[in-house]
Amino acid sequence: MLLFQSQTTPVAPDACPAHAALKRKGKGDDVTEDDMDSVVHAHNTMNELTWQRVAVWEMLHRAECPSPSLLRFRGRPDDLRWASGARREAAAVTWVKRGL
Description:
Blueprint: E1 3-4, E2 10-11, H1 15-24, H2 36-60, H3 82-98
Helix pairs in contact: 1-2
């Protein structure tokens, strides 16, 4: 959900463009624009934390690559990793065992 003002400066959208993007993609039928403030906040927080972890990794490898840059980013929201599926299955089993 990042929009780019220039080649290197990401700008996080506010609730209105994020909601419009969900609708355009045919998702979020049960989500209102008022809900999107929380969604955008969670999304932006996760992005910031992830980029901080990337920066730490880059610092560990600065001897081999002193000035790394992102060549491309391809979002694949429908391609879930096996770990996310395993966590989802484990959570479902936990709910069943607890009788919830």
